Amino acid sequence: MGSQSPTGNSPLPSLVVLTPAAAQTSVLSRRWRRVWALLPDLRFLCASDPHRIGAVLDAHEAALLYLFVETRDAVAGSAAAWLPAAARRVTGRLLFHNLDEGGGAQEDGDEEIFELPCLESATSASLHLGFLGLAVAPAGVFVRLTDLSLARVRLHRPGELGDAVSSPRCPSLQKLTVRESRGLGNLTIHSDSLQQVELHDLHGLQQLSIVAPALQVLDVMKCFYHDHNQLVASISAPQLVTLVWIDDPRVPSSVQLGEMEHLELLGPSLYLVYGLQDSTLNRACLSFLRRFKVIEDLILTLAYLPKIDNYQYLMEDMTMLPDITFLRLIVLTNGHAFGASAFHVLRMCSGIRRLLLAFPATDVEAQKTCPSGCICGDQHNWETDQLLLNCLQEVEITPFRGSEHEVTFVKQLFDWATVLQKMTVTFDYSVTESMAKELCLVLRNFSRPEIRMEFYMDGGRVKVLSAPED
């Protein structure tokens, strides 16, 4: 560091936070201009005058490694006032967060947009735009950009996004994230450098094409839910390791997946335990599962609707699973008895070595009670049928609330897993410390001396009991 303040008494800090008033003072005062002009980090909080930001950036002298700009209910013109200067100055990370407290999304007919200039020197850019209208610069090379994230964006000339992030114009890009976009009808990417792509909630997407020989992680969620036009997706990623595809049940038939010999983790759409016969959602899940014979790590989500009395039990339609080593079984119970459905899944993958059993909260009240006489209790043979999990060595359960259904299932799990070595239980936030200790004792009574039990609460940060002698 070594630089001195204007009085010569102390070294410069590594960053400066500029409010609008401070930005104005910095530009007007020669005494302070030398200070902030040499700093590698600049942060503008709740900036109301974008022209001042541009003036500060133009006057900045040092390599700008980090620039953070925060605005509130900004318009497209305000972003256009300083982004070109940022493109010239930033050599590291650019973050722009427009807090859209005024409702955010603009009308589709509102054509006010700004252009994202070519970031020739930046290595990372994250733009949370509050649905400002955005067009990507039609020319120029993002030479050093490795990470691009766009959130709450309304795209104009959307086809140019795919062109901009492809190798000819973005030769170093490794990670692309697009969340909550509007207007992106076609996304076509050809990249030799991309390793991770995350696409969530892209309204209007009709065509997705990715050719990325180095891609390892692809996460697609709710991108085709919103439209009823022809949906087409083509993925060529021979090095893909992780594929999570949670989307419209109509889509799998139009999704073309190339060879994925290295795939280790698969996360298909959720599966309804009770629903209408020939559920399109379930057919989508099974369609993806059938594409792979062997998967090291499978994320499988079983979902119970809050009211199931008028629906059919659909687990029998699931007749096979890939050969897997690690099962992450997520059960959205909505307060229902889940033992039969979880048993059905475990019976088809009895060779697993690791099991994660997760019970995410759906509705707090529904978690507490299940209506008397509910049909979820009709499937009870699982408590007496034989199941041998003779390869299962490690089990993790989270978040554990200690309901009767959960305790009964864990008791059975101890009987099925004959070579179990370790069980880790993380209690839900609703479980008090005294309740947690009581549940620890209950579960220990089901356990065997050779099994190491670990119990956590407070989101997994506080250990309650660990060793068998506790």
From TrEMBL:
Matches recorded under InterPro entries: FBD (IPR006566), FBL15-like (IPR055312), LRR_FXL15/At3g58940/PEG3-like (IPR055411)
Q: Which domain of life is it from?
A: Eukaryota
Q: Which residues form the FBD domain?
A: 386-454
Q: Which protein is depicted? A: FBD domain-containing protein
